[in-house]
Each structure stands twice: as structure tokens, then as C-alpha cells.
Amino acid sequence: MNTATARITDRRRNSSRWLRDVLRADIMRDYFADGVLPTESELMLSYRASRGTVRDALDLLRHEGVIERIPGTGTLVVTRRFEGRLVEIHGVTEVNPSAFAAHVLACDEIPMPAVVAFHLDEPVGTPCLLLEYIGIAHGGVVGLYSNYVRYPEADRIAATPFHGHWYALLADAGLELAETDLLIEACVADEVVAERLGIPLGRPLLAMQQVIRDSAGRPYDFAILRHRADRLAILSEAHRPEMMGLGR
User: Residue 40: CB partners within 8 Å, gap ≥ 6?
Assistant: First the structure.
């Protein structure tokens, strides 16, 4: 491939990638509210792109599992995300518990593994409650959550009905949520997690570790969270103090 041809190929690949990113952002903000994308000709006009660029961008979205192209029907959105603000993920602001459901997989007393004992400030092997569940939001599976709760808080959790949101469960159990830490990273689904979440092996996940503390600073819950990356988006907002009149 000569230099001129390589430049043309690279320009088309970049154009397709950029259009993919823009279309993906539009899909995730429900711009196509009916779940059906416009035709190729309409996309060409709306986004000022060539037919080849549009087709390449749609192919990239299809490979990501965001859309499906069905002959005779059109291009359909097959993945929608639950968008949560970071403060909601922390649990420090109120969420709508009716939008969530939980399918409990395990609620058992186990000896604390080393990492759990470290975060909960207990000796390794101390009894704790493992409550693992599949989270469902807006009718779709969003994640697999494993919570390790120390005693005596574990007794309250075990005695409280759990059907929806974890933070609603804490409130129903009369537990304080004064401080939380979140470590967020990326990982891929192993065989068991893929089966639980109904996704292909190796699909990207948002992985989190969380520690919840009461008002005295005592940690009582350590959680390992695995979110479907195609079903959850996290919004973080920040403001410079001087822009809010706080620095004057």
C-alpha cells in the first residue's frame, strides 16, 4: 500500500471511529427514543458522512453489541444503559428503589477471606455474612454483587427482607451509611460471571470494590461489584469553588 492510499484508508477509519463514538453517545442518551436508528441515507445527511463511513460506524456498533441490523426492519438499539450519578453509586444520595430488583444467590455465614478482613478491620477467618445477588434495573440484569457484612450488622441484614436496592436494604435494616469508598476499574467476565449475567465470556465489566462505614468510622460492609459495562454508565459532576461563589 503506497503512502497516499494509506492516508486515505487511515482517514476513513478515523472518520468511522469518530462517527461510531457520536452515534454511541446519542444512543446512550436515548436520542433515538423509539430504539430505531434512521436509515443510512438519513444518517449520511444528519452527520454529513459518506455511505461507507456510516456503514463502517454501524458495523463497529454492531460488533460492540449496541445495535442489530435486521433486513426489512432496520437498525435497532439492543443495549440501553442505566445512568447513575457517582453519588448515587456511593449511596450518599437518594435513588428510586422501585426501579431496582434483586435476585439473591447466596446468604450464608462464612469465615472472612484475607482481603475482607483487611477492609473490615477484623482477624482473618472471623465470621461474616456473604450476601450475593444479581441486580436488575429497568427490567435488565446490570450486575453481580457480593457483599461481606460483619456482625452485629449482619444479623440485621439477614433478618430484613431484600427485594430491591442495596441501600434501601441498609435503611430498612436501620444501618447507618455515613461514609463509602469506591475503587473502580475494568475487568472481563470469567465463565461464572458471564453465565450469571447472561453475557459472552470475556465481555468487559466495570469492577468495583466498596467499603461502607457508620458515623463512628467503623467499616461494616465490604463489597465486590461486577457491573455489565453495556448496562451502566456513571456520571460524575464537579465544580470549581470560585465558579460557585465559594472562592470569593
Answer: 51, 54, 55, 58
Give the model's pLDDT for residue 248: 47
- Per-residue confidence (pLDDT) for residue 66, from 0 to 100: 84
d(CA 219, CA 154): 12
pLDDT at 63: 85
Domains of the chain: 3-77 (1.10.10.10), 82-235 (3.40.1410.10)
Entry field: residues in the chain: 248
How far is Cα 66 from Cα 47, in angstroms, rounded to an integer?
A: 19
pLDDT at 87: 62
CB 40 within 8 A of CB 51: yes
Grid look-up 427514543 returns 33
Q: Cell numbers of 53, please? A: 463511513
> ω into residue 152 within 30 of 0, thus cis?
yes
> Which stretches of the chain score pLDDT less than 50?
248
* Helix residue spans in the chain (DSSP H): 3-28, 40-47, 51-63, 86-90, 114-120, 153-158, 166-172, 191-197
What's the pLDDT at 173? 96
The dihedrals phi and psi of 34, each to the nearest 5 degrees, come to -85, 0
Percentage, residues of the chain above pLDDT 70: 86
C-alpha cell at 144: 453481580
